[in-house]
Amino acid sequence: MRIIGTGSALPKKVVTNEMIAQFLDTSDEWISTRTGIKSRHVITDEKLEDLGAEAVMKALEMSGLQASDIDLFIASNVVSEYGTPGISCVVAAKVGLNCPMFDINCACPGFVYALDMAEAYYKAGKVKNVLIACIEEPTRMVSWEDRSTCVLFGDGAGAVVLTEGDNIKGTKLHSEPDIDKIWMTRALTDSPYVTVKEPDVALQMKGREVFRFAVNACTNGVKDLLDEVGIKKEDVSWFMVHQANKRILDAIVDYMKVPQERCPMNIQDHGNSSSASCPILLDECNRKGMFKKGDIIVFSAFGAGLLSGAAVIEW
Ligand code: UT7
């Protein structure tokens, strides 16, 4: 497949580190030196599905396709207000899509997992045009009394439209199932047959252990994938890495021995927007005119699960 359109949408409210330090025992100094984050976009009275619809419409507009041309819609989402239907259906109803669609919940690497699926459907001869939208509101998953998590995240949506082509050169997905490192739970409705009350638990994360997983999964995943497809890291034009922590990005640049400028970052303005982070970064770089035909772009992302994945495409 080949990406022919990108789009993104962000909540209007920008929350700086200083604003958080007004109600939590934290500081701009701690947050920016430990993470690289200076501010993030935070959902207020917007609806997540409206952000999703805006990102989708922008990607469709750039692609030159209509909603009716799309054969498959894959939405990546961790949490939304809807238990059912999936956010794919909620967004589809807004933008007039009526193709087969489904949600995936692969946490932060959702975009890479969706690319892998889109390519598999295409190679099976089942689709010609695929829409992927990663639509996330992690600021509604954290406790805003927990300084170790709430400072890290931001909300947003990123979308891509793909059509026929052999530009996805390879994907590599990886898992190390472990639900103790990043998790949250939501209570279900009461039932007379369930006697144990399930608690609502806001996002919990063992930061240091996730950090280690992220660096290993990302560096090994990218190296293995490039070996598999026979592309040298020197020939990669751009490394689009999940924006979780600037120190993770620095570690990857260091390990891969690639120039910093080939690893674009927007974490300072967005924080970690889960699976939306890669497609938002892609859209921002694309709209700045950074990509030229033939550029090799590597995506790498990691997160809850623990899951990680990498994909390499030609622009
Ligand atoms: O997208 C999902 C994937 N997630 C990630 O990739 C996240 C990976 N992990 C990380 O990015 C980092 O581990 C964090 C940014 C989450 C934390 O950085 P760290 O250097 O690993 O810090 P730490 O958790 O070991 O905490 C160090 C100290 C602790 O204090 P003590 O126990 O040493 O006294 C924390 O209580 O920093 C304290 N702390 C804070 N202080 C001020 C934790 N959060 C804050 C805060 N402000 N916001």
Structure description:
The structure is a single chain. With 315 residues, this protein is of the alpha/beta class. The chain is built from 10 helices and 13 strands. The strands form 4 sheets. Strands 1-7-6-4-5 form a 5-stranded mixed beta sheet, with helices on both faces. A 4-stranded mixed beta sheet has the order 8-13-12-11, with helices on both faces. A hairpin with a 3-residue loop joins β12 and β13. It is globular. Bound molecules: oxa(dethia)-CoA. Oxa(dethia)-CoA is lined by residues 26, 30-31, 34-35, 108, 147-148, 151-152, 182, 207-208, 210-211, 214, 244-245, 248, 272, 303.
Instruction: Let me know the number of strands.
Output: 13
Name given to the CATH architecture of the largest domain: 3-Layer(aba) Sandwich
Helix content: 25-40%
- Distance from first to last alpha carbon: 11 Å
Computed over alpha carbons, the radius of gyration is: 19 Å
Structural category:
alpha/beta
Question: What's the structural blueprint in terms of helices and strands?
Answer:
Layout: E1 2-9, E2 13-16, H1 17-21, H2 28-35, E3 39-42, H3 48-63, E4 72-76, H4 87-95, E5 101-104, H5 110-123, E6 130-136, H6 147-150, E7 156-163, E8 168-175, E9 182-185, E10 201-205, H7 207-229, E11 238-241, H8 246-256, H9 267-270, H10 277-287, E12 296-303, E13 307-314
Parallel strand pairs: 4-5, 4-6, 11-12
Antiparallel strand pairs: 1-7, 2-3, 6-7, 8-13, 9-10, 12-13
Bound molecules: oxa(dethia)-CoA.
Brief account:
The protein is an alpha/beta fold. The protein has helices at 17-21, 28-35, 48-63, 87-95, 110-123, 147-150, 207-229, 246-256, 267-270, 277-287, and strands spanning 2-9, 13-16, 39-42, 72-76, 101-104, 130-136, 156-163, 168-175, 182-185, 201-205, 238-241, 296-303, 307-314.
